[in-house]
């Protein structure tokens, strides 16, 4: 028994040490820096206690960023999962009998294509799509019809929804493939038996597909929620003034970067990072607990 424990410990020692050094230690360091006035260059930062957190909770821009992350936290998972479930159901059970629609394999590739593109590439691509002149893919046809162009990224009341649309467009394809894989594991006999009993498409989805895919949906919700809290590149690259106009699209990750590498307020940026850390952990725990249900065996 002792030999077995020593054998297991010898294999775990190296990865656990690396994890402690490169993952846990930076977290601990960030918590310490959050309680200092470090500007990134001073050798001995002054300890300020909770001063950064007090400033943070009275910062209007911080609350704007939190409100945007909160909206994304609700809307991004909800819209993405609903669309992905709908498309996955059509691709797998939407044809005659319990088969997918014709060309479903091709559609899966098309849906998944945005995942191949880097986030920065997607941001630059949609900068051109949303251009406010006649060269924009959306405003060009509007102006050709004599309509006024829409400020997708320049109008504070529209910019956030444009960012949300791009995030959904990029994310939905991956979850279509994920849910399709889950549907493929469900025996076709279950759908056939339900159809013989007179179940329609609506009943098939809500009585068979959704309950049997619930574990996958739960995981998707957590991943998308973390993405909504951790979003940075899309906002920073695509939007005006890196979170504008007038901070109408800014998020916590963008404010962390701005305070650290533009204003050189590393202590304040670390305080933002600590708040974001607790938001993310809290969301994951809450989502898993609220969506927990008995596993269905088949």
From TrEMBL:
<feature type="domain" description="ABC transmembrane type-1">
    <location>
        <begin position="66"/>
        <end position="287"/>
    </location>
</feature>
<feature type="transmembrane region" description="Helical">
    <location>
        <begin position="158"/>
        <end position="183"/>
    </location>
</feature>
<feature type="transmembrane region" description="Helical">
    <location>
        <begin position="266"/>
        <end position="288"/>
    </location>
</feature>
<feature type="transmembrane region" description="Helical">
    <location>
        <begin position="204"/>
        <end position="237"/>
    </location>
</feature>
<keyword id="KW-0812">Transmembrane</keyword>
<comment type="similarity">
    <text>Belongs to the binding-protein-dependent transport system permease family.</text>
</comment>
<keyword id="KW-1003">Cell membrane</keyword>
<feature type="transmembrane region" description="Helical">
    <location>
        <begin position="70"/>
        <end position="94"/>
    </location>
</feature>
<keyword id="KW-0472">Membrane</keyword>
<dbReference type="InterPro" id="IPR035906">
    <property type="entry name" value="MetI-like_sf"/>
</dbReference>
<dbReference type="GO" id="GO:0055085">
    <property type="term" value="P:transmembrane transport"/>
</dbReference>
<feature type="transmembrane region" description="Helical">
    <location>
        <begin position="7"/>
        <end position="28"/>
    </location>
</feature>
<keyword id="KW-1133">Transmembrane helix</keyword>
<keyword id="KW-0813">Transport</keyword>
<dbReference type="Pfam" id="PF00528">
    <property type="entry name" value="BPD_transp_1"/>
</dbReference>
<protein>
    <submittedName>
        <fullName>N-acetylglucosamine transport system permease protein</fullName>
    </submittedName>
</protein>
<feature type="transmembrane region" description="Helical">
    <location>
        <begin position="106"/>
        <end position="130"/>
    </location>
</feature>
<dbReference type="GO" id="GO:0005886">
    <property type="term" value="C:plasma membrane"/>
</dbReference>
<dbReference type="InterPro" id="IPR000515">
    <property type="entry name" value="MetI-like"/>
</dbReference>
<dbReference type="InterPro" id="IPR051393">
    <property type="entry name" value="ABC_transporter_permease"/>
</dbReference>
